[in-house]
């Protein structure tokens, strides 16, 4: 599923609803961040989940069932719930659960919406920094400040205009899982720096590009990217140039002008290594 540039604009009231809903999710997760009254466990895939992850997702699901009962839902914790409308919401209740568990205030609440044309709404809410990035198909990408974000108070988000690949400020996610070939190829040409909020940095002009490799992302991790990145003037694919929602769950995000150069730079290179298999005694 790719972004459709000539799709009709998403309904503004629906975008406002998504903003309010992500804001409520942020308030609940922020309260949990400062509380000790929750537990965590390991899921079957070996990743952590807390009671707050589950509670935030249930809050969002309940609101969606009331507001758009015919729409489908896919959530990281609750899986898929079918709908009859052909439209779907995707929930990552706490993106960065490990940060949340260790009291590092770098987690986010991610929400996306897909209609009959494709990706239509993307929201990344960062409750601890009181900032939200939101985009709607045909309505632009916006940075919203404050504990109760509102589109009326936002400013337009735009990517950089850099055209030179050499030295481009490029954020990297999870480099421990990168193979040497990919790391070296990028390190020779661009300025690689660590990332925690890659998409936010890209669409607010603090970075020219970003790469996610190593262990693949989940669909809920990438679902908000097409609307946000495209409406800010950028481009997002996997590292082969395939739609990020249909690819191998690696990610390449750029200001658009640099995209083809990056694709050529990483063409044919391996995407991951099993860093967990390294002998810790060496």
TrEMBL record:
It comes from the Bacteria. Keywords: Magnesium, Metal-binding. Its cofactor is Mg(2+). It comes from Streptomyces broussonetiae. Mg(2+) binds at residues 76, 92, 94, 221. SUPFAM superfamilies: Carbohydrate phosphatase. The lineage of its organism: Bacteria, Bacillati, Actinomycetota, Actinomycetes, Kitasatosporales. This is Inositol monophosphatase. InterPro entries: Inositol_monophosphatase-like (IPR000760). Signal peptide: none annotated. One of its GO terms (molecular function) is metal ion binding. GO terms for biological process: inositol metabolic process; signal transduction.
């Amino acid at each position: 599923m790719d972004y459709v540039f000539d799709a009709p604009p998403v309904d503004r009231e629906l975008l406002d609803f998504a903003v309010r809903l992500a804001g409520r999710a942020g308030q609940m997760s922020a309260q949990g961040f400062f509380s000790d009254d929750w537990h965590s466990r390991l899921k079957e895939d070996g990743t952590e989940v807390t009671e707050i992850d589950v509670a935030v997702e249930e809050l969002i699901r309940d609101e969606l069932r009331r507001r758009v009962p015919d729409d489908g839902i896919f959530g990281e914790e609750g899986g898929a719930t079918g709908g009859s409308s052909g439209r779907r919401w995707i929930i990552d209740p706490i993106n960065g659960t490990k940060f949340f568990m260790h009291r590092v205030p770098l987690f986010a609440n991610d929400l996306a919406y897909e209609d009959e044309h494709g990706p239509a709404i993307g929201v990344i809410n960062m409750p601890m920094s009181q900032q939200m990035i939101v985009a709607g198909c045909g309505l632009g990408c916006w940075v919203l400040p404050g504990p109760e974000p509102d589109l009326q108070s936002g400013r337009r988000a735009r990517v950089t205009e850099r055209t030179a690949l050499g030295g481009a400020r490029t954020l990297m996610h999870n480099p421990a899982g990168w193979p040497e070939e990919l790391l070296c190829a990028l390190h020779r040409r661009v300025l690689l720096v660590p990332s925690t909020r890659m998409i936010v940095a890209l669409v607010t002009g603090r970075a020219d590009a970003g790469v996610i490799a190593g262990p693949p992302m989940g669909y809920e991790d990438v679902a908000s990217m097409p609307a946000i990145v495209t409406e800010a003037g950028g481009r997002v694919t996997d590292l082969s140039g395939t739609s990020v929602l249909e690819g191998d769950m690696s990610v390449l995000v750029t200001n658009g002008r640099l995209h083809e150069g990056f694709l050529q730079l990483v063409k044919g290179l391996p995407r991951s290594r099993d860093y967990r298999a390294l002998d810790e005694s060496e």
